[in-house]
Amino acid sequence: MRIDIITLFPELLTTFTDSSIIGRAKENGTLEIVIHNLRDWGLGNHQQVDDSPYGGGNGMLLRVDVVVPAIRAVQALYREPTTVVLMSPKGKRFTQPLAEQLAMNQHLILVAGHYEGFDERIRNFVDLQISLGDFVLTGGELPALAIVDAISRLVPGVLTAGSAHEESHTLKNSAGERLLEYPHYTRPESFEGQGVPPTLVSGNHQQIADWRKGHSSRAQ
Length: 220
Fold this sequence. Notes:
Layout: E1 2-7, H1 11-17, H2 20-27, E2 32-37, E3 50-51, E4 61-62, H3 64-75, E5 83-93, H4 96-102, E6 107-111, E7 117-118, E8 128-131, H5 141-152, E9 179-180, E10 190-191, E11 194-195, H6 205-214, E12 217-218
Parallel strand pairs: 1-2, 1-6, 4-7, 5-6, 5-8
Antiparallel strand pairs: 3-4, 9-12, 10-11
């Protein structure tokens, strides 16, 4: 799978995408992440990417005649249609089912906005808008990283086989409802008077499986 990210601040993304599980997946070729600097499509000698809003107001907006050429240039790298995702407070709430849907794509383009926002017309040139929730961030870089992390875990070969099947929001009950993962414990067996549930140290695999099933709670 390949994910392209268009951003004004590549340095905010590279440390994360080069580290830990995602970094290893990039090294072994399971995952490809390419970060594009939006300023490469900036206008004039100063590579301008933003301007003040019509009608007045605070802040600066990313220009449609900068963002759209950037999107089209990255799209041109592929022979087949590619899903373009815009990070936006007005977007669809990001959930595990949506992560699973996006993980089925071979290629994704994520567009991270910044400053006050972006020209409204940019929305007409993307396929999907995503929000992490009802709060405000400085830019779209953190949401883009969260989406990359959630999607990457679902790409075959990124995690150890089977390790993602019993995670929160992936577990399901008999009715198909998504569950939160059961509690976990490790050594020491006793800490400041708090012990490990006896079932988990019993060695009885069926009882352990039943305990875990019974302690998986329904996701909100």
